[in-house]
Amino acid sequence: MYSGLLIILIPLILGYLLPLRRPAILGLVNRLLSGMVYVILFFMGISLAFLDNLSSNLLAIFHVALVSVVAILICNLLALRLLEKKMPWRHAHKQQALPSRLNMALDSLKLCGVVVAGFLLGLTHWSPLTHAGEASEYALIFLLFLVGMQLRGSGMTIRQIVLNRRGTIVAATVCVSALAGGVIAALLLGLPIHTGLALASGFGWYSLSGILMTESFGPVIGSAAFFNDLLRELIAIMLIPGLISQHRSSALGLCGATSMDFTLPVLQRSGGNEIVPAAIVHGFLLSLLAPVLIALFVS
Q1: CB-hemisphere CA count at 13 Å for 163?
Q2: Residue burial 209-243, b: 16+ Cβ < 10 Å; e: rest
Q3: 230 neighbors 242 (Cβ within 8 angstroms)
Q4: Residue 286, exposed/middle/buried by CB under 10 A (0-12, 13-18, 19+)?
Q5: Distance (Å, rounded) from C-alpha 148 to C-alpha 194?
Q6: Which of 254, 24, 263, 9 has the alpha carbon at shortest distance from 147?
Q7: Which residues have a Cβ under 8 Å from the Cβ of 280 and sit 6 or more positions away?
Q8: For tag attachment on the chain, is the N or C end more exposed, with fewer CB atoms within 10 Å?
Q9: Which long-range contacts (CB under 8 A, 24 or more apart) does 241-245 make?
Q10: C-alpha 133: how far from its chain's center?
Q11: 215-225 tens-digit pLDDT
Q12: Residue 260 to residue 270: CA distance in whole angstroms
C-alpha cells in the first residue's frame, strides 16, 4: 500500500536534503528539471497512443479535465472571495504594463506539443516504444530528486514561511478548497473520491501531476490531470491583471504552485514587489504539498 508513496517521497526528500549554494549548480538543476519534464511528457504521449479504444478515451480525457478544472476553480474562487471579505489585503500599488499574455500562454502550450509528438510517434506502434512506461518510471524518480533539490535551492526557510502570514493563509485556503472541488468533480464524473482528491492536488503544477497520475492511474487519468492543471495556469495568466486590483488574494490563489515561478512575473507586474514574498511562500508550500498529497491519495 505504501510502496508508491515511498517511491515518490524518498527521492524528493533525498534531493531536498542536499545543500545547494552555488548558482551554477542550481542553474544546472533547473535546466535538467526542464529537460526531464519534456522527456516524461513525451513518454506519456507514447503511452496514450497504446490505449485501447483510443477515440473514446480521448473524449474521456477532455471530459474529466474540463469537469475537474471547473469544479476546482469555482471552489477556489468562492473560498478566496470569503477570505478577502474576512481579511482584506490592503495595498497601494498601481499596475504596470504586462508582458504579452499570449506569448506566456504559448510557452505553456509547448508542453502540450511534446505530448502530441509522443502520441504521434506512439501511433506507429514501433516495438521499442512498448517500454515507454518502464522508462518513464525511472525518469520520474530522477525528476522528483531534482524537484527536491530545486525546492531546497529556492532558499525558503521555515522562519520565512511562518512569518509570511498572507502567503501561508492563501495557500491553505487554496489547498482545502481545491480538495473540496476534487470531491465534487469525482462525484460528478463517477470516479472514486481518492481519484478526485489526487486530481485536485496538482495545484496547477501540470508537468508533475500528469506524470504522477499516469504512473498510478494510467494515461487517461494522467492526461486529464495534465490538462486540468494546464488549463488552471492559462486561466490564471488571463485573469490576474483584471483581478489583482480588487481581489488580490484571488489573483494569487489562482496561480497555485506556479506563483513561485511561471506566473510570478505577471503577479509582480500587476501587483508590485509587495506581492512577491507572499507569492513565493504560496507557491513553495503548494509545490511541497502537491507530490506528497498526490502520493497519499494514489496509495
Answers
A1: 6
A2: bbbbbbbbbebbbbbbbbbbbbbbbbebbbbbbeb
A3: no
A4: buried
A5: 25
A6: 9
A7: 154, 156, 167, 259, 260, 264
A8: N
A9: 241/95, 241/98, 241/101, 241/266, 241/270, 244/95, 244/270, 244/271, 244/275, 245/95
A10: 21
A11: 788 888 988 99
A12: 15
Say which residue the cell 478577502 belongs to. 84
pTM of model > 0.85 = no
Q: What DSSP designation does 128 have?
A: G
**Average pLDDT estimate for 62-87:** 94
**C-alpha closest to that of 281 among 152, 150, 170, 201:** 170
In whole angstroms, how large is the CA radius of gyration of the chain? 19
Cell numbers for 36, please give them.
Answer: 526531464
- Look at residue 5 and tell me whether its pLDDT is greater than 60: no
